[in-house]
Amino acid sequence: MRLYMVAMDMHHEMHASGVNITIVTIAVILPVCAKLKFLEYGQSLHAYILKMGMELETLVGNALVSFYSKCGRVLDDAWIVFDMIPYKDVISWNSLIAGLSENGYISEALNLFYQMFQMDVMPNDATIVSILPICSLLENGWLYGKEIHGYALRSEFDKDLSVCNALMIHYLKVGDVTGAEYLFQKMKRRDLVTWNTLISGYAMNGWLSEAMIMFHNLFKSGMEPDSVTFISILPCCAQLLDLEEGKKIHSYILGHDFLSQNTLLGNALVNFYGKCGKLDKAFLCFEG
Fold first, then answer.
1. Taking residues 28-49, what's their average pLDDT?
2. Which pLDDT tens digit goes with each residue over 84-114?
3. Which distant-in-sequence residues (6+ apart) come within 8 Å of 31 by Cβ?
4. Which of 35, 39, 86, 38 is nearest to 62 (CA)?
5. What sign has the CA pseudo-torsion 142, 145, 147, 150?
6. Which residues have C-beta within 8 Å of that of residue 19, sequence separation ≥ 6?
7. Does the domain at residues 190-288 carry the CATH identifier 1.25.40?
8. Which of 60, 76, 164, 190 is the most exposed place for a label (fewest CB within 10 A)?
9. Residues 6+ apart with CB under 8 A from 187
10. Which string of DSSP letters, residue by residue, matches 115-134?
11. What's the pTM?
């Protein structure tokens, strides 16, 4: 957050010294305004853009769409700016689709996704990652996800790690654990998000033993778990009443400061010991 403020101060200094603000400057500073939720500052930049005749620049329009979307102004300001961009590229479409998806406008995001094809704009990997999370919320979400998966295969986006992770999350959310397992096995490269996705997905779908096996395989792979890993696996230990495994996890957490100071992980340990009937241990974890 401090670096964002430094960027804002530099922008103020630049403006005060009379240095011309270019479209690149706008494209850099608007995301900072979005991160800081500086709506009024971003709106003043928008006024400057209109004054200087920069509003027809695709780079500027894309930055404004993303800015307004992240500030929760997606249906009014973001969409108006999007409509005014004369030469929309795939980033223009992605910015609005992501904004609609993140703000809960599910049907609007999906309609815009299909509209891309009608306008001969081909979705890219970022589009797929933005649209997949809403598919699981739809009545026929599994089918929509399958359709998008098919497009990803035809476009060879299935080689992209973020796309594969998003597809796995989708399949697990709609209860297709086998589909997620198939993707996992086919992946040539995996990151911690990949492992955490399958572990939490197994847990979410009640496949507790499989979650435990995958957790152990994560260690065997040489990859280090994080707080998300343990927050996913501790409830499995509790439901299986596997006190010994939970104790091993607790010991590992205590040996790593960045984990032992995590409040959510502390809560997970309290719940684990409580469900295993070890109230004294639960209280000690609660006390920190």
1. 89
2. 999 999 999 999 999 999 999 999 999 999 9
3. 63, 66, 67
4. 86
5. negative
6. none
7. yes
8. 76
9. 161, 164, 194
10. HHHHTT----HHHHHHHHHH
11. 0.89
- The answer on pLDDT for 125 being more than 90 is yes
Q: Are 238 and 272 in contact (CB under 8 A)?
A: yes
pLDDT per residue as tens digits for the range 185-240: 999 999 999 999 999 999 999 999 999 999 999 999 999 999 999 999 999 999 99
**Among candidates 84, 87, 160, 163, which has minimal Cα distance to 131?**
163
The confidence score (pLDDT) of residue 92 equals: 97
pLDDT confidence of residue 22: 85
> If you write DSSP's letter for every residue of 90-116 in order, what string do you get?
HHHHHHHHHHHHHTT-HHHHHHHHHHH
Cα 178 off chain centre by? 23
Burial of residue 90, with CB atoms counted within 10 A of its CB: 0-12 exposed, 13-18 middle, 19 or more buried: middle
